[in-house]
Amino acid sequence: MTAIVNIFLKEGVLDPQGKAIHHALDAMNFEGVQDVRMGKQIVLKLTSTNRDEAIKEVTQMAEEILANTVIEDYKIELL
Amino acid sequence: MKHVAILQFPGTNCDLDTKYAFEKLGCSTTIVWHKEEKLPQETDLLVIAGGFSYGDYLRSGAIAKFSPIMKDVLTFADKGGEVLGICNGFQILTEVGLLPGALKRNIGLHFISKFQTLKVVNNSNSFLQKCEKDELLNIPIAHADGNYYIDEEGYNELEANQQILLQYSNEKAETVIVNGSVNSIAGICNKNKNVFGLMPHPERALETILGSDDGIKMLEGLIA
Questions:
Q1: pLDDT in tens, B153-202
Q2: To the nearest whole angstrom, how far is the Cα of A61 from the nearest Cα of chain B?
Q3: How far apart are CA B92 and CA B60, in angstroms?
Q4: In this complex, do A16 and B109 lie within 8 Å of one another by their Cβ atoms?
């Protein structure tokens, strides 16, 4: 099973990299971009075949190391 | 003679400067490799030196928190032992939860390396006891992830407990935006005032011929 963890800065926490990308898009005349948030994606190949177990395990990984929950939110997706 | 233990992770690069600094101030030192499980028995002060532990992979300081030595670091701090985290050391201390908040990418995204004026906000702690309140210090900074973030509730707590140590400032003692830190914070301590973290490098400011010796009075506070 594959788990995908998407990590983004929390809403309300200023994202300097997203802002810089937004400025660049503006400078390139891409109009209509309201906001840009930049995050990271971590792809995990798991031995587990049980979805509930996998979610539990990856949640623990996200809480303990993959994300810094002081400033970041994460979403887990299983494939 | 005070004994200073200095942590070394793969990617730490200020360990020898820190050793030089504390030996110049009359201390004995040990550099402690992160795979060790115990700090030297005689440790009076533990310094987590600057650098790029684990190449800043994942997040600055994130992977260092799982090094074997960190367990004893937490025990040392819990028992009231004094801990100083400089730059990457500050990032590690927030990641392990010994200090509140987090350090994000600088607002301008650049790595900033220059001398910076700092203002002493609180000196009611051992680290800055030799500095005056509102005193200006000239100390080098060198970081890409120094943008200190803390939520409003956390900030109010820092302020109420006099945990804000230093702010980025100009020569007129007005705060300036350097990296986007909440209220220009450059350094903080924990509630018990035995764990200190700052982005600037006092160990690089020991000789006027190299630009400033203002770092001496900061480091001296911890070994007084």
A1: 999 999 999 999 999 999 999 999 999 999 999 999 999 999 999 999 99
A2: 12
A3: 7
A4: yes
ipTM reported for the complex, 2 dp: 0.81
**C-beta separation of B139 from B168 below 8 A:** no
Per the rule left: phi > 0, alpha: psi between -120 and 50, beta: everything else, A26 is alpha
Of A16, A65, A66, the CB nearest to B104: A16
* Cα distance between residue B116 and residue B213, in whole Å: 13
Total tally of structural domains belonging to chain A: 1
What pTM was computed for the model?
0.93
CATH fold label, B3-222: Rossmann fold (3.40.50)
The CATH number given to whatever domain includes residue A27 is 3.30.1280.10
Q: Annotated active-site positions of B, please?
A: 87, 201, 203
Which residues of chain A are within 8 Å of residue B180 when distances are taken between CB atoms? 14, 16
CA atoms of B207 and B215, how far apart (whole Å) = 9
Contacting A with CB below 8 Å, chain B residues are 58-59, 62-63, 65-66, 94-95, 100-102, 104-109, 147, 149-150, 180
Residues B89, B95: Cα–Cα separation, whole Å:
10
